[in-house]
Design brief:
4 helices, single chain, alpha+beta
Length: 453
């Protein structure tokens, strides 16, 4: 009976002890619900009161979610992001730097007293909510694709704001600040409007929203054709036509066309790749197509020189070179075979013949009268035998010159000082001599025919 009475006494003491401690300690929280933007610092405002005979030795904060110790006033074993900014008298506040989503949840506090008692407040602790800055996209069309020429509004939203609190924001494009304010207006968008957009709290640049990528799409434009190596090449050369165009999404299909020379309306499809290797010349154009449209390039003209034209040119060059070599070789051989004969008079007047040939010689001063006893080079000699049909006067005249009867001599000579190594001079002389011989042959033939008649 005595043992039962003692057990009842201890049970009643345990039941009334919390009420006794509650009368000795009291905790108040300034906010039961705390909202913080990710990347900012959050402060849990806390105050406590106790009787004069109660001393606080240690304060410990904990999070109910993971049942772990966040801060220990005696031994710090956790992240330095958590800082107890209170004291052991009345302030029990806790600061959390650079909050993240793992920090959200219900927080509670414990007090360790001087009489080695642990006291927990019966009132639930504050709850921390961690949010991101969000971007709301508003556009005229309901689809998600942003087309060139459209307008888009971007609104930065802080879920922690309420009617009484409004945040100031800064907008960024590709990491560079572009504007301030809660709404970013993008009008008549083009390809330059594409990029990564974010917003952040104006006074806290570390609180960055999620990245919103805007990809402005458009059909092919600036479609053009380039020719490599050039628009005019020889037949058989390697030629490449390149079709280029700007489009988003990229060009999906390329089509090459050739226009017939006789009819501009007669167009033939010749290829379906960005690179085209034509086999012949003509007028070409390409067309670029993606999901938003297509565009044609301007017409380019490829000129290929036909093979027979280039072949004729090459043959003509070869023929000229061959003739030059043949003439040069003939002149050189002629110079080698020439005999040298002295003469005292390079000009003879043959009075008694039907045709008079002049002995031509040139000295260094280009005088054509006499060679003045110099050694000359024999160029050619022609001998004409006269027929028997001569007049009596001519026969009597020739009877006094038995040695030259019926013979006409024609001689051309040149001064020995002519330089045989000069190819140009030799060619000119050769052509001149050939012309002179031909002329004399014709004239002799005419005289002969006149005498026979």
């Amino acid at each position: 009976m005595l043992i039962k009475h003692k057990n009842l006494t201890w049970t009643l003491m345990l039941l009334f002890l919390p009420d006794v401690l509650c009368n000795m300690l009291k905790v108040e929280y300034q906010q039961q619900h705390i909202c913080a933007v990710k990347g900012l610092s959050a402060v849990i405002q806390c105050s406590f009161y106790h009787t004069d005979n109660l001393r606080i030795k240690r304060v410990q904060w904990g999070r109910v979610k993971n049942h772990g110790s966040i801060f220990d006033g005696k031994v710090i074993k956790t992240s330095p992001r958590f800082q107890y900014i209170g004291d052991k008298h009345h302030n029990c506040s806790l600061k959390i730097r650079q909050v993240n989503h793992d920090d959200k949840g219900l927080y509670t506090i414990r007090f360790f007293t001087s009489n080695k008692k642990v006291w927990r407040p019966s009132k639930a602790g504050p709850t921390l909510k961690v949010v991101d800055l969000n971007i709301l996209v508003t556009k005229s069309h309901g689809n998600e694709t942003v087309m060139e020429g459209e307008s888009v509004n971007l609104t930065c939203i802080n879920s922690c704001d309420d009617i009484n609190v409004s945040s100031a924001f800064t907008w960024f494009k590709n990491g560079e600040p572009i504007r301030e304010g809660p709404v970013l207006y993008l009008r008549n968008m083009s390809s330059t409007s594409s990029g990564n957009y974010t917003c952040s709290l104006k006074k806290h640049t570390g609180t960055t929203s999620r990245v919103l990528n805007i990809d402005v799409q458009y059909g092919p434009k600036n479609t053009s054709v380039s020719i490599r190596p050039s628009p005019e090449v020889d037949a058989g050369s390697n030629v490449t036509l390149i079709c280029s165009s700007h489009a988003n999404p990229p060009v999906e299909n390329y089509t090459w066309f050739k226009i017939h020379d006789d009819d501009d309306d007669d167009i033939m499809t010749v290829g379906h790749e960005p690179l085209f290797f034509p086999g012949n010349g003509g007028q070409y154009l390409c067309s670029a197509t993606n999901t938003h449209g297509s565009q044609n390039s301007s017409v380019v003209t490829l000129k290929m020189k036909v093979f027979w034209a280039t072949a004729t040119r090459d043959i003509l060059i070869i023929a000229i070179v061959a003739v030059f070599l043949i003439v040069t070789t003939a002149v050189i051989r002629l110079n080698k075979k020439m005999t040298w004969a002295p003469t005292t008079d390079c000009e003879e007047d043959i009075q008694n013949t039907d045709y008079v040939n002049w002995l031509i010689c040139y000295d260094n001063q280009r005088e054509a009268n006499q060679c003045e006893g110099r050694t000359t080079e024999l160029i050619y000699t022609s001998v004409y035998f006269k027929t028997n049909r001569e007049s009596n006067m001519e026969q009597r005249f020739h009877s006094h010159n038995d040695d030259d009867e019926g013979v006409v001599y024609s001689t051309v000579c040149r001064n020995q000082q002519l330089n045989p190594t000069s190819i140009t001079t030799n060619i000119c002389n050769f052509l001149f001599l050939f012309s002179s011989l031909s002329t004399q042959k014709v004239q002799i033939k005419e005289k002969k025919n006149a005498i026979e008649n």
